[in-house]
Request: fold
Amino acid sequence: MNHLDLCSGIGGWGLAFRELGINTIAFCEIEKYPQRVLKKNFPNIPIFNDLTELTYETIKKRTGIGRIDILTCSYPCQPFSVAGKRKGESDARHLWTDTFRLVKECQPSWFIGENVSGHIELGLDTVLKDLETEGYDTRTFIVPASTVGAWHRRERIWIIGHKELSDTDSRVRGRGRTKRQSGAYPKWKFYSEEEKQTREHIRSKAIRCNVVSGETEDVQNTNSRRFKSSESKRQQKERISQTSECRAEQENWWQTESELCGVPDGISYGLDKGRVGRIKGLGNAIVPQIAWFIGYSILQTYGDKHD
Reply:
């Protein structure tokens, strides 16, 4: 199956689909840092720069491929995000119009979109209506990152549209058969068992020190100062000692847990100049493990209908 990825970011869709054997024919991404990540991880796949100028004919000419089975697009979330001004279609970053234009031009069997949950209240009705006018049956799902093992919630809406295309359609001529995968249901895990054990050990320390909640024992005690007056000097010394141990464990945790804020991770700060781009790239990225399950389900459905 051939896959076109729009608003690609750092390539979450391409990464997930590569694990499934789905052929990504091209990316479209305007930001420079994600483009560098795409070039590194997918060196032989073309990257188009501007979605508003991209056309099906340009894609076909550049890639030599005319059939697009899956079109994915994580179009910008800023017009819909509760963290922004929520201007919707009046936002300059609103790219659904051009996304839908390419859906109509490319005529994929599957369209998959991803966006923030704020999209449900602002703009989603238009997206679903547009897809349905083009003949797509649509379903939407709220799938947080935590459902596939991540430590953060990251609640996102996933939009899936599908339509059956005739064999005479120019976009699907010569489609061929894709055999359904067989055997046990495969797993694509976040971490190996060894990594899980290490991370759980670190996490237990973090929880005990209240690092996860962002509170130290001192902060918690400020909420119960009325009890401090009754503490003996021995109890105060024990509490201070425990807090010191807690802070030491916090330091160890930070040294082993590479967070978005750029903590010691073995890479010198001089070499890690792309930190701002990295944080933005990760913040805009999809969770590839969720994309993997969507792609796997499509392969199952596609195989059932074409075996």
